[in-house]
Amino acid sequence: MSALYTAVATASGREGRAVTSDGKLDVKLAHPVELGGDGAGTNPEQLFATGYAACFASAMQLVARQQKIDVSDVSVTAEVGLLKNDTGGFGLEVTLRVEMPDSIPADAGRTLLDATHQVCPYSNATRGNIPVNLVVE
């Protein structure tokens, strides 16, 4: 299988900068206040949350089109938690909160959410590696 698209980014660590090869993303990185930093920049967890939310929303649009469901008013919020693990390292946990329009019945919304979780590249990359909690709101 060959890549349809490859993003390239370079970072100098949690304090510094992260820049994509095309220059479209150039952000200051900083530890969040909760981890003892000044919070004067973004952090990897925020970037991951942003990417996962955007990717999941796009995957949902694809799945919904196939199922002939209108999700133009759907909103996806990703919460990414940084955790200490038992071996002295760190891990992540994710909660995806999907706000469905009232026009989508709860059972159909849940089915759509579960189908999207099978299609989304972020979901496929994280499956079995980190806990991902799917919440319909």
From TrEMBL:
Transmembrane segments: none annotated. Gene3D superfamilies: 2.20.25.10, 3.30.300.20. It comes from the Bacteria. SUPFAM superfamilies: OsmC-like (SSF82784). Pfam families: OsmC. NCBIfam families: organ_hyd_perox. Belongs to the OsmC/Ohr family. This is Organic hydroperoxide resistance protein. It comes from Streptomyces mesophilus. The lineage of its organism: Bacteria, Bacillati, Actinomycetota, Actinomycetes, Kitasatosporales.
